Model the fold of this input.
Amino acid sequence: MRTRSLVAPVAGLVGVGAATLAYAGLIERNAFRLRTLDVPVLSPGAAPLRLLHLSDLHLTSAQRRKREWIRGLGRLRPDFTVVTGDFLAGMDAVGPVLAALEPLLERPGAFVPGNNDYYAPRPKNPMRYFVPERNRVLGPKLPWPDLAGALVDAGWTDATHARATVKAGDHVIALAGVDDPHLGRDRYARVAGPAEPDADLRLGLTHSPEPRIIDAFAADGYELVLAGHTHGGQLRIPGYGAIVTNCGIDRARARWLHPWNDRTWLHVSAGLGTSPYAPARFACAPEATLLNLLPRLR
Done:
């Protein structure tokens, strides 16, 4: 009798688990959304600036729905667009990425690469996300130089270990960026030093939001740092949040906007994609963010 009495609850739990996996893998990972946030980082009295932040597209040639959704963001006509890495998820994805971004490439923008722009994704035990990664095995090299060159040819700024001053509307933006910290490719010393004092906005870019990189940007006077990589946790527990961040940032700041200190803000994009080998999201929909940059109160 006891054995039979357990059959229904166990079957129910299995059914709930299967339904959750189906929702996370088939529905939520394709439920793209636009988040809008206000960030008080401009000088008092300055006109607002609309900045579109994208990250972690992980685009494949087969993902037409995602590609068309990204294309539709062109209707926002942002003053400036930033992509903080992980554009690619396949050898043949350069063309689809450029097609997705085409309307946005008509306006000013900047980018840095992520770890998945250099090497193709590969199958990975999900439990590896819970322990420090050792003896990392990389996939085949991806055509990142081709994509980066095409973005620069279209007019966007490659901020990889570079400082630049760009014009967006009536604003002057001082940019600095680093190569991907997750692969240990960052060399902040190449861009170190006080940020441009006469700019309307000082903006730091990194793929992985490692605290040491954000601290360095903050110390040099950058008011806003943009990052991605975490996928917002990707699989979040309601009421608890991200389980892991896959980097040095704390779980509480795995996504969205947070003050880093009294002058610097950090925005971590929850990203638009997933690895092809982990195609699921739960309580963490894929998203782009429109940041309305506003004057500080002081």
Observations:
- The longest strand covers residues 33-42.
- The chain has six helices and 14 strands.
